[in-house]
Each structure stands twice: as C-alpha cells, then as structure tokens.
Specification:
2 domains, 192 residues, 4-stranded mixed β-sheet, 6 strands, alpha/beta, 7 helices, Arc Repressor Mutant, subunit A, 35% helix
C-alpha cells in the first residue's frame, strides 16, 4: 500500500471509519448521523486516502473498537498508531490517556500533572480536541474538573462523551448547567 487508505465498518453505534498508513492507524472516525457524512469527514481530513480492505493492524483495531462500542472489554494497547503528523506534546498526552482503564475517568488537570506540568490543563484539552484516534486513545475518559462530560474531539461524530462513557459503565455529570439545575446553590442566610 502506498499513502493512506480507509475502510468503513459496522459497530453498535453506527458505521465508523478508520484511516491507516504503512506505519499504523492514522485516524478513527466515529459515526455521523449518515454514513455519507462519515465518509465526507474522512475525505475532508484525508483526501489522499482510498477505500481498501483493512490492513492486519487496522483489522485488529476494527475488531477491538467494535467490541468496545458493543460494551465488551477489548485490548486496544497493541494497536499501532501512526503519530508522524502529531505534535510531541499531543503524543505524550495520548500515551497517558491510553493508560486510563475502561470505566474510569480523569480530568484534564490530572493528565497535565501526569505529564509533569500541572499548569497545562488547557493544553491537554486542546490536544484531546485534536485526537484523531477515537476510542484507541480514549479521550472520552478525560473530563472537565467536577466530572462534567464536555464535548468530544472532531473525530467524535454525532456521539457524545456521555454516551461512550455509559457504554463503558461510567456515569459523569452531563453538563455544568444540568448540574446547577439539579443542585442549586442554597440561598444566602439572612443575617441576625
């Protein structure tokens, strides 16, 4: 194979896409509302990729991703990723995130501390927003402080962090707004 290739595959949440090169998986695209939109997202990010039968590594990734999205435990650590176009800081963040166990979550600040730079929580959030390796690098397991399930990366398609975490058995708070509605701030006491 020369260059990049892609394949579309079935999962419990819809038709996903995977892009690979000779060096490994380049990207995983979670499903959009329609398969044509998933294909369009792949083409926009990887216009040189051609649809082909998956390579051995990509086939392993497809099987593991489908198992995870079905709610089964699957090992994703052996999937080879092509991080040739990924900035060094993002690579380090992705390595830490790959170590978060299924059903667990961390905050951006906790990932920054694990990288040895506790002041870089915003940089971690930006790196995970660029995560092209959905599910394999489980950025959905990294939440805002307070366990708020915020937005997922651009490769997340129409799927939310909250939905992915519920498949894995974790139950974060939906949003700050919902949290404030459910647990309103107590009114101030009248002074005596």
């Amino acid at each position: 194979m020369v260059g990049r290739a892609y394949a579309i595959f079935d999962t419990a949440i819809g038709r996903c896409g995977i892009v690979w090169s000779n060096a490994g998986v380049v990207a995983v695209q979670l499903p959009e509302a329609r398969e044509i939109d998933t294909r369009r997202r792949i083409y926009q990010a990887h216009p040189e990729a051609r649809e082909q039968h998956p390579s051995f590594n990509s086939e392993l990734a497809i099987e593991a991703i489908a198992a995870v999205l079905h709610g089964d435990g699957a090992e994703l650590g052996d999937i080879v990723l092509d991080m040739g176009d990924v900035p060094a800081f993002d690579r380090r963040a992705y390595d830490v995130v790959r170590g978060i166990p299924r059903g667990d979550t961390r905050t951006y600040h906790e990932i920054a501390r694990a990288l040895g730079t506790s002041s870089a929580a915003h940089s971690v959030a930006q790196a995970l927003a660029r995560n092209p390796f959905m599910i394999v690098v489980p950025c959905h397991r990294v939440l805002e402080a307070g366990n708020y399930a915020d937005r997922i990366s651009a490769y997340g398609g129409a799927i939310s962090k909250r939905r992915l975490l519920s498949i894995e058995g974790a139950h974060p708070i939906a949003s700050k707004t919902l949290f404030e509605v459910l647990l309103p701030v107590a009114p101030p006491r009248a002074s005596t």
